[in-house]
Amino acid sequence: MTGNCLIAQSGGPTAVINNSLYGIIEESLQSPQIQKVYGARRGVYGLLNQDYIDLGQLSKPQLEMLRMTPGAALGSWRYKLSTHEIEIIVAHMQANDIRYFYYIGGNGSMHVAHLIHQAAQKKGYELNVIGVPKTVDNDLTQTDHSPGFGSAAKFLATSILDMSMDIMSLPKSNRITIVETMGRNTGWLAASCALGMQQETGIPLLIYIPESPFCEEKFLRDVQKKYEQHGSALVIVSEGIRDGAGRLIADSALVRDAVGRPQLGGVAGYLKDVITTQGAGLSARYILPSIWQRSGMMFSSGVDVEEAYLAGKHACYHAKQGINGAMVTLQRKKRPFYAVEYGSVPLKEVAGKEKLFPLEWYDADSHFVKAEFFDYIYPLIQGEVSIPMKNGLPAYQYFIS
């Protein structure tokens, strides 16, 4: 099928999302059936308003710089689409002879891609829709892991190791340090902080994930015990932790985002206040890595960078093979050494669904992860990336205005 292709990025960006973009662009520019390669500015906004950029006009150095640039170079936008707006997007694609559409994003984005695929089929318009996985939350189903997770995990683990070095430097004046991670309803990122304790520091670490009910009274007892034994403690809380009834901790302060989901965050501040007011004289502070954990390119994983790039290329391979309405998957091969193979799964099987952290990998009594998780995550954080520098700072490449 001959025509143009369109690429969009969606949801929260990652340190490696532009590697998937680069992989799609590179492969599409080499494909004889692709006439023009477009990118939609600001994700859904560009799709709705036909705000496209001709990616084929960019120079080779500009494109190559994408591989070392965090954030979404095309831009993203959180917006809940109506059925009518999905139809408008398909009409715009038809008007521009878009025959291949690649959507880089998480489970919500895969839902939108599925709706676009269905709308094109209903209209009788031949459009090949392929989703490319991306999320630091690692909550996409049907794939061993998602590009973006490994780098965010490496960033957080490095941060925890650095923090523990600082805490050890002041053994007589420490307090409880609470670090809040992203992850929405899953604890993958919070669990990854355990990697920072694999070097012996003597600083106790407690990890709380959404999949295991949070008990405030037990939390206070655990913190008090660790402090009495060690004089300090590091506490990792996922932004989406819930109590036994399924209620978000500190939910009274939450608002809704542009797509109607609770805008998570603030649980670390809440727990800091719980400790200082109810913790028998303990002092506490909280640290919010916030968006830094998903944009820290200096700590990105070499494996993650390469897999994101290859996920983009395989999206094009799948499209050329006639695969449609599907998402690229990464599946771990059963070998003595780490390797993945790239497959595909229908969008309807991943759209809007979440992969939770396995409770069999988590010890709810000690609030720490088990050996199986370390076996899973260590391969994903391997390798370093050399960032091009200018005047002592990273040199990045963006397209959006």
Describe the structure.
This protein has 401 residues and is of the alpha/beta class. The protein has two domains: 3-135 and 298-353 and 384-394, Rossmann fold, CATH 3.40.50; 149-296, Phosphofructokinase domain (Rossmann fold), CATH 3.40.50. The chain has twelve helices and 15 strands. It has helices at residues 17-29, 44-49, 60-65, 83-95, 107-123, 149-169, 188-192, 216-230, 267-278, 292-295, 302-320, 371-377, and strands spanning 3-9, 34-40, 52-54, 98-105, 128-133, 176-181, 205-208, 233-238, 284-287, 326-332, 340-346, 362-363, 368-369, 389-390, 393-394. It is elongated and about 70 Å long.
Annotation keywords:
single chain; 401 residues; alpha/beta; Rossmann fold; 2 domains; 7-stranded mixed sheet; elongated; magnesium; glycolysis; EC 2.7.1.90; kinase
User: What is the CATH class designation of the largest domain?
Assistant: Alpha Beta
- Helical content band: 25-40%
What number of structural domains do the residues give? 2
Overall residue-averaged pLDDT value: 93
Strand order, sheet with most strands: 3-2-1-4-5-10-11
Terminus-to-terminus distance: 32 Å
Query: What's the main sheet like?
Result: 7 strands, mixed
Q: Count every beta strand, where a strand is a DSSP E run of 2 or more residues.
A: 15
Percent strand: 15-25%
CATH fold topology of the largest domain = Rossmann fold
Number of helices: 12
What would you report as the Rg, rounded to the nearest angstrom?
Answer: 22 Å
Structural shape: elongated
CATH architecture of the largest domain: 3-Layer(aba) Sandwich
The arrangement of helices and strands along the chain is EHEHEHHEHEHEHEHEHEHHEEEEHEE
SS-based class: alpha/beta
Ranges where pLDDT stays below 50 over 5 or more residues in a row are none
Domain Phosphofructokinase: 5-297
Binding site for Mg(2+): 107
Subcellular location: Cytoplasm
Organism: Brevibacillus ruminantium
